Amino acid sequence: MSRPRGPEMVNGFTGASLAAQPPHIRELLIRRGKVLGPGYQLFYTNPVEVVRGDGVHLYDSTGNEYLDAYNNVVSLGHCHPAVVEAVTRQLSKLTTNTRYLQADLLDFSERLLATFPAELDRVTYTCTGSEANDLALRIARAHTGNTGIIVTRNAYHGVTAEVAAFSPSLGPSSPLGPHVRTISAPDPLRHGTSVVADLRTEIRAAIDDLQRHGFGVCALVVDSIFSSDGMQPVPTDLLGVLAAEVRAAGGVYLADEVQAGFGRTGTGWWGFGRHEVVPDLVTLGKPMGNGIPVAAAVLRNEVGREFGRKVRYFNTFGGSNVPIAAAAAVLGTIEAEGLIDNAHEIGAQLKRGFARIASDHPHLADVRGAGLFLGIEVTAPESTEPDRVLAQSLVDDLREHFVLVSASGPHGNVIKIRPPLVFDAADAALLLERFADSAARVLPT
Questions:
Q1: What helix, strand, coil percent values describe the chain, rounded to 5?
Q2: Do domains 48-78+339-442 and 81-336 have the same CATH topology?
Q3: Is 69 helix (H, G, I), strand (E, B) or coil?
Q4: How far apart are CA 149 and CA 66, in angstroms?
Q5: Which PANTHER family match (predicted)?
Q6: Does this model's pTM top 0.90?
Q7: What is the topology classification, in CATH, of domain 48-78+339-442?
Q8: Where are any strands of DSSP class E within 87-131?
Q9: 12 within 8 A of 43, measured Cβ to Cβ
Q10: CA gyration radius for the chain?
């Protein structure tokens, strides 16, 4: 059976409910445990077997239809025809690597870079967001000559050995590197109006400590929506303040856009744009290929100059034809279907609806988010004390009623809602209806 990674696992199958699973599911779980390597996880107390996807829906082997309000890997929805057609066409034509001249790679790169501020004028391709963050740190080290990294206290940035060393959300069994320092994420529910001043003080202390220990300051690495820290969209003047402190100490600001990018926040292509600050490096991942592995590091030319002078970089599949065809289809569809505006409009509909529901339930302490990236904080009533157990009960009840969401945050008590960008008004209305029903069933009165 699947085993948990540790006590920090959020919304995962632990094996405790194995005996209660239907025979077919139990058999699959036992087979999975016998052949897959260590560390794999499944969502939900009662795992979901999926056999097909279409748009914003997933289907299990008995034909049940689930409203998928969580998957941003398929940013355009499951099996989007534009991506299917582009990949199929390219597979029948050519797939090779970046050591050959290919116009399609350049065409897409020019289109992608046009969505960024002019200062960010170079792109290097990888297969995953983890690889992109790994590469970006190598570039930053070559540029700054330093090794110290600053991240938020429950950040997640990837699974390579290098990147896991600055991904504290992986838990105590995955220790941070000695060159890593953590600061708090913004949390207005608990910090109040002093959050910018408090975090400026924290980052100055982290910078001083890195310098005292001989690491210097290489980079501040921040997910632009603070997803693993519980989805914290405000204050929007914070990242500029933190970036200025790090740059003054000789480091760079790396915006991790793996989750917040490609229009997700509904106010432009990239999450950092909400904060009115231009990063030195940006990393892209999950939503870029709508399920085809493709990712990238975007950077200022001058930041990459020293790395390029000293290092020969090559990635067999990063930037190869099929992933680039998928990424081009994603980019084109976001533009053609107006999906950034859609994220803004449908996100606002959801935020208003969840706020109405929360007004009837004191356990729902905060509704926050930007675009189609929302968090609902579950606490003890009239309190800021996190209630992870109740949050998990909500997630599980929604799953039993064919709606898929998850949970996040350092205490696992924030309902994480992150549907495909093609979510429409009817999908949002159904999600709100079923969430209201679940809240009435699960939350104490």
A1: 40, 15, 45
A2: no
A3: coil
A4: 40
A5: ALANINE--GLYOXYLATE AMINOTRANSFERASE 2-LIKE (PTHR45688:SF13), PTHR45688
A6: yes
A7: Aspartate Aminotransferase, domain 1 (3.90.1150)
A8: 122-126
A9: yes
A10: 22
